[in-house]
Amino acid sequence: MKNTPSRTKGRLILAAYRLPFKIIQNETGYSLFQNSGGLVSAVLSLAQGQVNTSFDFADKIQWVGYTDNNPEELAGVTLENESFKAHPVFIPPQINEPYYEGFCNDLIWPLFHYFPSLAHFENTNFEAYQEANLLFFEKLKEIIQPNDVIWIHDYQLMLLPDLIRQQFPTNKIGFFFHIPFPSYEIFRLLPTTWRESIIDGILGADVVGFHTNDYVEYFLKAVRMVVGYGNKLHYVNLNNRIVKVDSFPISIDYQKFNDAFDLPEVKHEREQVRATLKEKIIFSVDRLDYSKGLLHRLKGYERFLERFPNWHEKVSFVMVVVPSRDQIEQYQQMKSEIDQTVGRINSSFGKMHWQPIIYQYRSMPFEELVGMYTASDVALITPVRDGMNLVCKEYVASRKDVQGVLILSEMAGAAAELGEALIINPTDAEEIGSAVVRALEMETDEQRKRMEAMQMRLREYDVFAWTNDFFTQMLMIEQEHKKLSHAYLKTKDMQAIGRAYQAAANPIFFFDYDGTLVPIVRDPSEALVTQEVKQIIAQLAEEATVVVISGRDRAFLSSVLGDLPVHLVAEHGALIKKKTDTDWVLNPDYVEDWKDSIRSILDLFVKRCPGAFVEEKETSLAWHYRTAEDQEYALRRAQELAWQLKSFIQPELNLQIIEGNMVIEVKKTAFNKGTSARSFLDLGDYDFILAMGDDTTDEDMFAALPKSAYTIKVGDALSVAKNHVKNQQAVFELLTIFKAN
After folding, report:
1. From the DSSP assignment, how many helices (H) and strands (E) are in the chain?
2. pLDDT for position 741
3. DSSP string of 406-459?
4. Under 8 Å CB-to-CB from 4, ≥6 apart: which residues?
5. Which of 70, 308, 409, 412 might form a disulfide with 389, Cβ 3.0–4.6 angstroms?
6. What's the average model confidence in pLDDT over 37-42?
7. Membrane-crossing residues (predicted)?
8. Which candidate, 86, 90, 101, 91, places its Cα nearest to that of 20?
9. Could you tell me which CATH number the domain at 12-247 has?
10. How does pLDDT run across 653-677, given as a tens digit for each residue?
11. How does the average pLDDT of the chain come out, rounded?
12. What are the beta bridge partners of residue 32?
């Protein structure tokens, strides 16, 4: 594991919609009975130091969540056991109904599972959602102490991270999203203010986790399109802080399910099933929900029976559906369709002594569930959309005999990890039927090979490793914040740098142009350096090496700075003109093989955005929108353009997309401001190095310079530079100090 910083002990506070406890009254008061879910076990082991993590928590785990109990019966009662302290959130029914059943279950759940036709968009439900998140926040406000770490879970609490951030800016906050995050085309169906609130809310966290990289990319696109923030290596820069967005595929307690194979109760269940069903067994278990693909599953099995009559009377499909929300009409209708489909298939193919489908609508206790997992020959798991799906992982983990075949939907998040399963499209009845016969006929050696590979993966990344992984990232973000922390130069600091310059024998300066030597202006052609600044630069150049590194083209730099004894670097390092040379030199790594394919995309976005224009430089193409008539509209177009370019550009083109100040530029990756700065440093033994810049492209320069260098970011954006100055006026103040020395 990477080295992580030490930290002061704080408590772990979890916030999830529902408390994972039953609150039961007894003779001595109230007691907590915690469930045995994977998350509870994982968090417990983390807090008790049973897993390898640098986090060290003080006190019991504080768990905040909704309870069905009313405030009166729990008034003045402390709810805790050996490991947890519960903090119930009381949500009045008139809020909870539109909040939980309305906004969460009738909008977010169907929409994020790609069932927009089932989504209900009601303003009153969103208002209730806001109120409920505030009630959670009010409870947390009573609890949070300095150094506490808050871990928030799932779509019911998407506004909560930012509410906490505003009040407790220094506490570490994590957020994990347990369902799919949809593509932007689905997400944008939400009203504008709703989606802005959701994105801003989630970005209140330090670390945001999803099950798969697809969900991460969808979220990052939503961030770009809705609030305008890009990302670098999954770090979203909010100017005053950064947010890490990454995939953490949730898992199960592997050992619990693997060891359960030998439990007497499980053995008994397995033997009972085998004695009753002497033929091959296909098994599935899911709760009642339209995302689980239950009807498609039945149709796939039906197609198998139609195509392969030789398997009649040799296989039984045990389908268990766990009751869920069946008081709602839509779910009642779904259950009715399942009942009818099962009845039709059984009547069409069944015999007096053989039933193709054994269907039960009930919950299963743990021992019976594992007994079925380990008795079955095939597990048929076919959701049409699922954030992860832990049933398939439980099935694999329980097979201590390394036998059995998993048929898994490609639409389940787990498919990315369990590639040795037979991966199918859940709506393709033909493909499901073919996979079933392939699974039933698979040789035991191949079953073992596939099962061993999947088990090894699940064993190494179980729910405890998942928890540890998430919290390791929570610690690593502290290091990133320290690297990107702000330290604004005061006058005395500038004077100290001036004295260091005066004492140096061989100094070198690197200056960006726009936003550094000149202020940012609406029309780039009018960004002309003043005579006063030119005089200071000329004076510095008499005693030091001065390099101006810009994204500008060589014609512009030559026109405004060509009369100064300084080195000029144009187009982010593509072209260099030494102060003693008359000609510009093109970077030898540059190859002109790409502009035509990119120019057509940029031209299209010029047509879509009045006032934008394309600047063709010798080695790059730039789409400017500083002169656009509607800046808010132009920003949205810029976000769309950047995303489209990233989707379009193939790795073999070796192109880089630079998102600068009101410009999107495309250039070759072989050079940047950092490589250019290093090329100058390699030519001399410099004892004073200073670099200043305001743009994202200057980060390459700051990162490339040695630790002894003075690196100065202009503006308040996060930077790897050691120091900041507020604006271009502060740059002039520092230059004046150099002149005085």
Report:
1. 26, 30
2. 67
3. EEEETTBGGGGT-TTSEEE-TT-HHHHHHHHHHHHT--HHHHHHHHHHHHHHHH
4. 54, 472, 475, 476, 478, 479
5. 412
6. 67
7. none
8. 86
9. 3.40.50.2000
10. 788 888 888 899 998 887 899 999 9
11. 90
12. 23
Looking at this protein, which amino acid is placed at residue 340? Q
Q: Boundaries of CATH 3.40.50.2000 in the chain?
A: 12-247, 254-456
Count CB atoms within 10 A of the CB of residue 257. 25
What is the torsional sign of CA 109, 111, 113, 116? positive
Run of H or E residues at 492 = helix 491-503
Which CATH superfamily groups domain 595-668?
Answer: Trehalose-6-phosphate phosphatase related protein; domain 2 (3.30.70.1020)
CATH 3.40.50.1000 domain range(s) in the chain: 491-588+671-740
Confidence of residue 53 (pLDDT cuts 50, 70, 90): low
Which of 3.40.50.1000, 4.10.410.60, 3.30.420.40, 3.40.50.880 would CATH assign to domain 491-588+671-740? 3.40.50.1000
Per-residue pLDDT tens digits for 255-297: 999 999 999 999 999 999 999 998 899 999 999 999 999 999 9
Q: How would CATH label the architecture of 254-456? A: 3-Layer(aba) Sandwich (3.40)
Tell me the C-alpha to C-alpha distance, in Å, between residue 243 and each of 15, 190, 471. 19, 23, 14
Tell me the CA end-to-end span of the chain in Å, nearest whole number. Answer: 48
Of 148, 512, 695, 700, catalytic: 512
Cα gap 319→651, rounded to integer Å: 46
Question: DSSP strand E in 609-661: where?
Answer: 613-616, 620-624, 655-660
Element (H, E) at 214: helix 213-227
Residue 512 annotated in active site:
yes
Q: What is the Cα–Cα distance from 316 to 375, expressed in whole angstroms? A: 12
pLDDT digits (tens, 9 = 90+) for 690-702: 999 998 889 999 9
Question: pTM of the predicted model, to two decimals?
Answer: 0.79
Contact 15, 24 (CB under 8 A): no
Within 13 Å of residue 274, how many CA atoms lie on the same side as its CB?
12
C-beta separation of 699 from 720 below 8 A: yes
Q: pLDDT for 101-156, tens place per residue?
A: 999 999 999 999 999 999 999 999 999 999 999 999 999 999 999 999 999 999 99
